[in-house]
Amino acid sequence: MTNTIKVTEIMTKSVIVANVNSTFEQVMRFFTESNIQHLPVTDNGALVGMLSVKDMADFVFKQVKKGLRVDLPSLNSSFKVSEEMTSNPITIGPEETAYHIVEILAEGKFQALPVTVNNELQGIVTNKDLVRMLRWEYTH
Fold first, then answer.
1. CA terminus-to-terminus distance, the chain
2. For the chain, is the Cβ count within 10 Å smaller at the N or the C terminus?
3. How many domains are contained in the chain?
4. How far is CA 67 from CA 23, 34, 73, 116, in A?
5. CATH no. for residue 22?
6. What is the tens place of the pLDDT at every residue in 72-131?
7. Angle at alpha carbon of residue 12, lines to 90 and 45, rounded to 5°
8. At what angle do helices 53-65 and 24-34 cross, to 10 degrees?
9. Domain containing residue 44
């Protein structure tokens, strides 16, 4: 069945995004208030990267390891989205199949794929979206 289901049918279309100028606090607020784990990063509407909760934890850990302060003002001043994000992330088009998503995510390098057309963000597909799709398949 995943050979016929299109990305556009399972992707999350309303996507919260960061931009290259977002602060540590803003990014963490996106993650915590929206209960998400992956955040596309845009610059002038174009997708330029992806940030994950793990990227943010790694950033804080590096600060602690260097003996730097980890209060909010210090984290905001030392955080740069462009240094912590994964640049030029692998993307998928909306007309690709769910099977193609499974092939990519099965490699285990990441857990979300931005959906783009001409580098413009259309949505995102995460492992959670795939689980929802499978659940629907098994119950219908």
1. 12
2. C
3. 1
4. 21, 31, 16, 40
5. 3.10.580.10
6. 999 999 999 999 999 999 999 999 998 899 899 888 888 999 999 999 999 999 988 888
7. 60
8. 140
9. 7-139
